[in-house]
């Protein structure tokens, strides 16, 4: 069975291939299908955006489609930046400016009130019209200063108590085991396994 991932990001595609490695399905990128349109993320929630993207790919290719959307939800900011995490400091999706804005907004907030979580929602759209959602959450806290050089986005200030380090201090494999996206992909794998194995 073919599964088309509504992403052109090679790192994410590699992660998904790894997560589904033992299933009898082949993972392709939407980049391999010129008929797939660019989809604007106009949804108000991670679920809506993931579904918008997966539906567009399923419709354009006629194949099983998967899409993900991720947000950082900070308690003291009432869940912001959430669905707007990529565009927190402006429409140009600048990781550095987003991180600086987050640290500025949390200036003076004590450690005990700096709780946050990354949340990923994966949408699966099947050619027969069926739709499924898989969620993955990773709880943590926002540090006052950066730690580590790996990862991307908010990784240097996102501290994971369970691991005793930030995402930016983890190897890719280590991050993949406990991250929001890793957990959502593991859940998507559970949904997919009986379907692709029975196909
Ligand atoms: P996307 O839905 O995967 O494109 O994620 C939206 C935004 O959330 C990205 O532009 C990043 O700012 C942030 N983000 C997503 N995943 C991560 C992560 O694993 N670490 C740090 N930031 C992330």
Give a written overview of the molecule.
The mean pLDDT is 95. 32% of the residues lie in helices and 25% in strands. It is an alpha+beta fold and 199 residues long. The radius of gyration is 17 Å and the shape is globular. Helix 4 crosses helix 5 (180-198). It has five helices and eight strands, in the order βαβαββαββββαα. Strands 1, 2, 3, 4, 5, 6, 7 and 8 form an eight-stranded mixed β-sheet that branches. The protein starts with a strand and ends with a helix. The chain has one domain: Maf protein (Alpha-Beta Complex). A hairpin with a 6-residue loop joins strand 3 and strand 4. It has helices at 10-19, 46-61, 95-105, 172-178, 180-198; strands at residues 2-5, 26-29, 64-74, 81-82, 115-125, 131-142, 158-160, 165-166. Bound molecules: inosinic acid (IMP). Inosinic acid is lined by residues 69-70, 85-86, 93, 95, 98, 151-155, 167, 179.
Number of strands: 8
The total number of structural domains is 1
What does the radius of gyration come to? 17 Å
Number of helices: 5
**What value does the average pLDDT take?**
95
């Amino acid at each position: 069975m073919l599964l088309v991932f509504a992403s052109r990001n090679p790192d994410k595609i590699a992660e998904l291939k790894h997560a589904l490695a033992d299933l009898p399905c082949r993972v392709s990128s939407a980049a391999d299908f010129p008929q797939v349109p660019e989809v604007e993320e106009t949804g108000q929630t991670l679920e809506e955006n993931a579904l918008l993207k997966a539906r567009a790919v399923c419709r354009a290719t006629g194949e099983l489609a998967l899409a993900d959307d991720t947000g950082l939800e900070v308690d003291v900011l009432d869940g912001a930046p959430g669905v707007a995490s990529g565009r927190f400091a402006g429409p140009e999706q600048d990781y550095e400016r987003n991180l600086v804005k987050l640290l500025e907004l949390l200036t003076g907030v004590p450690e005990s009130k700096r709780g946050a979580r990354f949340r990923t929602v994966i949408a699966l759209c099947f050619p027969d019209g069926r739709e499924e959602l898989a969620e993955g959450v990773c709880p943590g806290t926002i540090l006052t200063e950066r730690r580590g050089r790996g990862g991307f986005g908010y990784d240097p200030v996102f501290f994971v108590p369970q691991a005793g380090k930030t995402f930016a201090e983890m190897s890719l494999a280590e991050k993949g085991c406990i991250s929001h996206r890793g957990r959502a992909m593991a859940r998507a794998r559970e949904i997919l396994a009986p379907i692709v194995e029975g196909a």
